[in-house]
Amino acid sequence: MQSENSFTDNIWKYFAHDIAIDLGTANTLVFTLGKGIVMREPSTVATHKKTKDILAVGHEAKNMIGKTPANITAVRPLRNGVISDFDMAEAMIKYFIKRVHKSHSIFDLKIPRPRLAIGIPSGVTEVERKAVVDAAMKSGARKVYLIEEPMAAAIGAKLPVEEASGSMVVDIGGGTSEIAIISLGGIVTSRSIRIAGDEFDEEIINWAKYKHNLLIGEKTSEEIKISAGAATPTSNEKDMKVVSMRGRDLKTGLPKEIMVNENDMYETIERPLGLIVENIKDTIEETPPELLADLYHNGMVLTGGGALLRRLDQRIANETKMPVFIDEDPLTTVVRGCGISLEHIGLLNKVRID
Description:
Elements: H1 4-12, E1 19-23, E2 27-32, E3 36-42, E4 45-48, E5 54-57, H2 59-62, E6 72-75, E7 78-79, E8 82-83, H3 86-100, E9 105-106, E10 109-110, E11 115-120, H4 126-138, E12 143-148, H5 149-156, E13 167-172, E14 177-183, E15 186-193, H6 197-212, E16 214-215, H7 218-228, E17 242-249, E18 255-261, H8 262-285, H9 289-298, E19 300-303, H10 312-320, E20 324-326, H11 333-343, H12 345-351, E21 352-353
Parallel strand pairs: 1-11, 11-12, 13-19, 19-20
Antiparallel strand pairs: 1-2, 2-3, 4-5, 4-6, 7-8, 9-10, 12-21, 13-14, 14-15, 16-17, 17-18
Helix pairs in contact: 3-4, 5-11, 6-7, 6-8
């Protein structure tokens, strides 16, 4: 017989806008049941320094980075996949919930607050988990479920996570890279390293500064990474991507422009990228022999923004001797997995973190 709580949840799910959130270091994605992905915004908040008033969230706030007057600051409340500024994180989550879950009634029946499923890095501490739950509850959630990002990514990629066979997912986000082997609805072995897209951006900023005396900001660095980043060098000059990098000349203080190509960016991000690849190989080495045959047959799936790095799938395949696939929409895999979990309570109960 169905429990009272389960029965109530089943009744309310037809009215409540339950929400899945990929609370990322760089971007936050929001998924609602029945509608799919309804929001994709930078994880950025702009505030007034003295009054602490929230002035902007998401795209509007990100566009202010590096351009604000002295009395306004634009911050990213998450670093390395976890909350670094609790108040700003709470304000950001509240903003997203309000945009999705507007208060209204049906026949004078008050709509309940939403349930939230949130993807978090697998390596976070209990204190960091509690910070996410507290921020979500204070933002208006009725109930909060935490799902480890590699598990959410595997579900979003439609891997057979509940079957007695091995599945492997590598999720490279902005703050963390998550590597996991999954079987029977659980993570068999995993690694969560705080080396990912943000680290690539920092390497590009340092490369421009020390090699070309050029000062560039985070936004420019990210744009260069997206347009010319590469995981392996190329000798095909005809198809090599070449882009301009603009900033301030550190010697003259005047604007300066240089041209950079894929091979420049490959050399620039090789150190952090090499560490990610080594951790992928180490995770495979730690996998029980019974699951290795499945992995070498099924391969691994790449998700997250890092999966879009040129020729990354080829490099990992060459170094691991395994098939490597990129999810059809790697930027949304985690939030889709959280959303699928919300729709299937049995799966949610199996994969959520208590």
